[in-house]
């Protein structure tokens, strides 16, 4: 374990040696551009999947644990407790039906990780997420370490035989409890997600030595509250630079040899940088600083196109590229909020016919699912038109604004609204903290 010094602060005469010129994302980008970082390790949490429409576990009001009352559980974490699951599997499979892979697409952050792999500088990606979005983005088994397992495989709890993925998917989406076909329908088939009371995957422990080779550690969207995953940040050499991209600073313990030290107070080397913000925002900036922004956007667009064709669905949430962000909305904030509240998934198709004298644009909005209490389970279809003087269609959902100038092309935009009252949209087992709880359990 790193650091044996019990002191909480360094000696005042002991100035830390600078590994990074400054604790900023710009300095980290400079290392990458100068080819000084060739063996990157990514540690990913639930925060990289929230823009896909998948909530994290702990956010007040919108996190998974805050939205489990409908399952009448003895305690929130019980839904991922292997003992409770064996006695009462129904709550988990009811939740799994809504969270099963295929409904959500990888985010910009997932494709940034893929980009690092394509550039042959990614040594390994350790993820707490069980949503398989890293796989959908194109990461292979030899690069990916799913610390808490995933929905990718399923096994019978009795005979331990692996179930056919297609059969398992159909059973879960059909709302039935999957029973092993090799155990005369006795054994429950469970996705290979690490529940409380279960051991972490062998691959997790086999890949830990990779941290000794790491020359740049990037930690994305995690609370660093779940062990042993959280302690991995201290497994890299003490001279290895570390970058945290997260909405808030985490993993700061104020102890020499342990955790992040963004101010240079506790560690021997000043090597930690922090970007405060959403993961997609942070990786976009990092890609821009490295000169990869257009490459990242292309990878994201092509990936979503392929997944849309494969699954015959549109993503549950849309990350709007910066060049589509409008400066001035054509609707009031109240009108936009009202529209956003009505939509869980919306497809906006805009067409403009130059042969028409009036040159009107038809906007078709298909309401797939409603997320607010007053209109739950209702469906509606709204059709409206705008005059030719309107050059743009602007839709803003929860601070994300997308602008599509009127063209002859057909444009599809998917928007999702997360409601704290609807576990369907807000919960996906895919989150980084995949069953993160205050317990220092296997998960």
UniProtKB/TrEMBL annotation:
Q: Where is the composition biased (Low complexity)?
A: 414-434
Q: Which GO terms describe its cellular component?
A: nucleus
The family database entries (SUPFAM superfamilies) matched by this protein are listed as: DHS-like NAD/FAD-binding domain (SSF52467)
Q: Name one Pfam family in it.
A: SIR2
Residues at the active site: 148
Keyword Metal-binding on this protein? yes
- Protein biosynthesis: present as a keyword of the record? no
The UniProt record gives the binding positions of Zn(2+) as 156, 159, 180, 183
Q: Which residues form the Deacetylase sirtuin-type domain?
A: 18-293
Quick one: where's region Disordered?
1-20, 405-443
- Per its Swiss-Prot or TrEMBL entry, what cofactor is needed? Zn(2+)
| Alphabetical list of InterPro entries matching this protein | DHS-like_NAD/FAD-binding_dom (IPR029035), NAD-dep_sirtuin_deacylases (IPR050134), Sirtuin (IPR003000), Sirtuin_cat_small_dom_sf (IPR026591), Ssirtuin_cat_dom (IPR026590)
Could you tell me the superkingdom of the organism this chain comes from? Eukaryota
What keywords were assigned to this record? Metal-binding, NAD, Transferase, Zinc
Instruction: State one molecular function term (GO).
Output: NAD+ binding
PANTHER family with a match to the protein in the record: NAD-DEPENDENT PROTEIN DEACETYLASE SIRTUIN-2 (PTHR11085:SF6), NAD-DEPENDENT PROTEIN DEACYLASE SIRTUIN-5, MITOCHONDRIAL-RELATED (PTHR11085)
What family does this belong to?
Belongs to the sirtuin family. Class I subfamily.
User: What protein is this chain from?
Assistant: 6194_t:CDS:1
């Amino acid at each position: 374990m790193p650091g044996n010094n019990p002191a909480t602060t360094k000696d005042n005469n002991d100035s830390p040696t600078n590994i990074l010129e400054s604790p900023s994302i710009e300095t980290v980008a400079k290392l990458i551009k100068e080819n000084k970082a060739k063996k990157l390790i990514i540690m990913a949490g639930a925060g990289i999947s929230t823009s896909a429409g998948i909530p994290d576990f702990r956010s007040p009001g919108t996190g998974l644990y805050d939205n489990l009352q409908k399952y009448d559980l003895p305690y929130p974490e019980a839904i991922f407790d292997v003992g409770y699951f064996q006695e009462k599997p129904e709550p988990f499979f009811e939740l799994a039906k809504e969270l099963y892979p295929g409904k959500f697409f990888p985010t910009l952050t997932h494709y940034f990780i893929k980009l690092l792999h394509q550039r042959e500088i990614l040594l390994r990606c350790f993820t707490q997420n069980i949503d398989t979005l890293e796989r959908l983005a194109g990461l292979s088994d030899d690069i990916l370490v799913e610390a808490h397992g995933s929905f990718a495989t399923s096994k019978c709890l009795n005979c331990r035989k692996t179930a056919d993925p297609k059969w398992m998917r159909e059973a879960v989406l059909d709302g039935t409890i999957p029973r092993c076909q090799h155990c005369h329908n006795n054994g429950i088939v469970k996705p290979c997600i690490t529940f409380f009371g279960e051991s972490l995957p062998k691959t997790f422990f086999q890949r830990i030595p990779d941290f000794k080779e790491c020359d740049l550690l990037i930690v994305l969207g995690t609370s660093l509250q779940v062990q042993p995953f959280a302690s991995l940040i201290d497994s890299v050499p003490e001279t290895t630079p570390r970058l945290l991209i997260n909405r808030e600073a985490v993993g700061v313990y104020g102890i020499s040899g342990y955790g992040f030290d963004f101010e240079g107070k506790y560690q021997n080397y000043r090597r930690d940088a922090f970007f405060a913000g959403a993961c997609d925002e942070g990786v976009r900036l990092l890609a821009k600083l490295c000169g990869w922004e257009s490459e990242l956007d292309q990878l994201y667009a092509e990936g979503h196109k392929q997944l849309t064709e494969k699954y015959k669905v549109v993503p549950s949430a849309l990350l709007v590229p910066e060049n589509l962000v409008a400066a001035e909305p054509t609707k009031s904030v109240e009108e936009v909020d009202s529209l956003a509240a009505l939509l869980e998934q919306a497809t906006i198709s805009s067409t403009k016919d130059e042969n028409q004298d009036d040159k009107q644009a038809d906007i078709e909005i298909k309401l797939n699912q409603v997320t607010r209490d007053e209109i739950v389970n209702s469906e509606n279809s709204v059709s409206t038109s705008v005059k030719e003087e309107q050059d743009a269609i602007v839709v803003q959902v929860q601070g994300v604004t997308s602008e599509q100038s009127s063209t002859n092309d057909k444009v599809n935009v998917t928007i999702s609204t997360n409601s704290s009252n609807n576990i369907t949209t807000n919960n996906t087992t895919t989150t980084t903290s995949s069953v993160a709880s205050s317990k220092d359990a296997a998960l």
